[in-house]
# Entry
Amino acid sequence: MQRTDEKEASTTDFSLDDEFSGVGESAERSPASARSESNGGRLGGAFSPKLFLGVLLASLLGAFLGGSIPVVGFVGRFLGLFAVGFGVGLLSGRRRYLEVGLAGAFASGLLWVLTTLTSTFAFAPFAVELLAQYGLAIAGVGAGAGLLASLAGHYFGRDLRDGLTRDI
# Structure
């Protein structure tokens, strides 16, 4: 048992935040950059562009690989997005709902539009007309479904991480 005036020994955890925190930093920092870091970075710590690009690429890959499973196909895309969100939630020590949600929504919306275009490719004039009339609605439904799948995965990944790292 520790006294209250003693600090706990720090343990080493792997997290995505450690991986992306030191990339591109110089040894010398100006006072302005020190102030912005104390406020959470350029965007207040709410959004990490590097992490977003990484999660976006992983979401595209996960949705593509999940959609290529023969039996589950269409549902597999959302399982792939769920898995990517789950992995980010499990590995990251901080909440990354914004990055994961935007990446999942963008990846799913893009793949829905591309699927609509390629599935009706034999009828190219029909596909172009369909996308001209309903393209925004098709992308919106895909983005909304991808957003929900990604956020649910991230939530459950964070919940598992919290359960594994909590003291009993």
